Amino acid sequence: MTVHEFKVEMTCGGCASAVERVLGKLGDKVEKVSINLDEKTVTVTSNLSSDELLEQLRKSGKTTSYIGVKQ
C-alpha cells in the first residue's frame, strides 16, 4: 500500500464529508483516508495510482492537486 497526499480546497466539515463520500465509493480499494481540514490536505492509503485517486477526488467538486507520496 502507498500513502498519497493531496491538497484539496476544503473550507468546512461539509467539504470534508464530500471528499470522504467520493473516496468511500472506491470501497476496499482504499485502506485509510485521513483529512486535515486546517491544512486542507487529504492522505489516502491505497494500491490505486495517484492519477486514479486524483480523478476520484475531483468528483467532490473541489479543486484538488497531488502533493506526493508521504513517507
Please supply descriptive tags for the structure shown above.
71 residues; alpha+beta; Alpha-Beta Plaits; 4-stranded antiparallel beta sheet; 2 helices; 30% helix; globular
Polypeptide structure, described:
The chain contains 2 helices and 4 strands. By secondary structure, the chain is α+β, with helices and mostly antiparallel strands. The chain has a single domain (about 1-70), classed as Alpha-Beta Plaits (2-Layer Sandwich). It has a 4-stranded antiparallel beta sheet, with helices on one face. Strand 2 (about 30-35) and strand 3 (about 40-45) form a beta hairpin. The radius of gyration is 11 Å and the shape is globular.
At the first level of CATH, the class is Alpha Beta
Strand order of the largest sheet: 2-3-1-4
Mean pLDDT: 96
Look up the CATH topology.
Alpha-Beta Plaits
Protein structure class: alpha+beta
Global morphology: globular
Radius of gyration: 11 Å
Number of helices: 2
Q: How much beta, percentage-wise? A: 35-45%
Which residues form runs of ≥5 with pLDDT under 50?
A: none
